[in-house]
């Protein structure tokens, strides 16, 4: 019962992290315009994402345009585009593998070993996808903060952290947490399996010893 609840919890958390990763990859709110000093045009907000940039005017009208070329992006956004795609694929594979590992509940000894390998693979993929997602999110956040406090950068070009970065941190944490849960579940399965198979062996050995002792005493009484 506890192992099933642990599996379901890991799958739900991993699913939330996977959906969040997909959302972060497509959201344009990675860089948001900063209203500081002379930049007081508050009725116009600029969003910069991995695939497009948007201009929102007074919460009424929003126009988005896909980047004409990948070279138009800054180096951190160029790398983030590839890393987020890799993280999305890894999280999806981890989710599918986790579902496959949860299909059987009672299996033979050979199937227990296969199930443990499948769950362990899903856990490692979840952790890897979370780590891959953390790299671009932290990189872009560090770049935004560095430019914000850099006096050389023009005020109009300074940006703030967008909602996609905060969602990316939450999604990465969910993926790593799901991976840790599945890895712990795999360790619990190994301990339970080793205990389950060692106990009958001890019992059989003890029974055989008693049986031999009984036969020996019977043969001696019959001889006398």
H/E topology pattern: HEEEEHHEH
| Mean pLDDT over the full residue set | 78
Morphology: elongated
Distance between the termini: 57 Å
Main pleated-sheet profile: 5 strands, antiparallel
Helix content, binned percent: 55-70%
Major sheet: order of its strands? Answer: 4-3-2-1-5
Q: Give the tally of β-strands.
A: 5
* Low-pLDDT segments, ≥5 res: 195-206, 218-224
Q: Give the radius of gyration.
A: 29 Å
Computed structural class: alpha+beta
**Share in β-strands:** 5-15%
| Count of helical stretches | 4
What would you say this structure looks like, in words?
There is one protein chain. The protein has 224 residues and is α+β, with helices and mostly antiparallel strands. The chain is 68% helix and 10% strand. The chain is built from four helices and five strands; from the N terminus they run H-E-E-E-E-H-H-E-H. It has helices spanning 2-26, 75-101, 109-148, 163-223, and strands spanning 31-33, 44-48, 52-57, 61-66, 159-161. It has a five-stranded antiparallel beta sheet. A hairpin with a 3-residue loop joins strand 2 and strand 3 (52-57). Helix 1 (2-26) runs antiparallel to helix 2 (75-101), helix 2 (75-101) runs antiparallel to helix 3 (109-148) and helix 3 (109-148) runs antiparallel to helix 4. The two termini are 57 Å apart. 28% of the residues are buried. Mean pLDDT is 78; it is low at 195-206 and 218-224.
């Amino acid at each position: 019962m506890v192992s099933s609840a642990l599996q379901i919890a890991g799958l739900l958390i991993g699913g939330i992290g996977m959906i969040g990763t997909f959302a972060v990859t497509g959201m344009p709110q990675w860089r948001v315009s900063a209203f500081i000093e002379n930049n007081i045009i508050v009725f116009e907000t600029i969003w910069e994402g991995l695939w497009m940039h948007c201009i929102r005017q007074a919460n009424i009208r929003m126009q988005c345009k896909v980047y004409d070329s990948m070279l138009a992006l800054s180096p951190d956004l160029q790398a983030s585009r590839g890393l987020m795609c890799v993280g999305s694929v890894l999280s999806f594979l981890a989710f599918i593998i986790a579902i496959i590992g949860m299909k059987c509940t009672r299996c033979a000894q050979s199937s227990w070993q296969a199930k443990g390998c499948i769950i362990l693979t899903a856990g490692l993929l979840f952790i890897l996808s979370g780590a891959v997602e953390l790299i671009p999110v932290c990189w872009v956040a560090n770049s935004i903060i560095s430019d914000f406090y850099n006096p050389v950068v023009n005020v109009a070009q300074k940006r703030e952290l967008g909602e996609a970065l905060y969602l990316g941190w939450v999604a990465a944490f969910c993926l790593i947490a799901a991976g840790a849960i599945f890895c712990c579940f795999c360790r619990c399965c190994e301990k339970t399996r080793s205990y389950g198979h060692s106990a009958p062996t001890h019992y059989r050995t003890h029974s055989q010893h008693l049986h031999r002792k009984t036969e020996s005493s019977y043969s001696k009484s019959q001889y006398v």
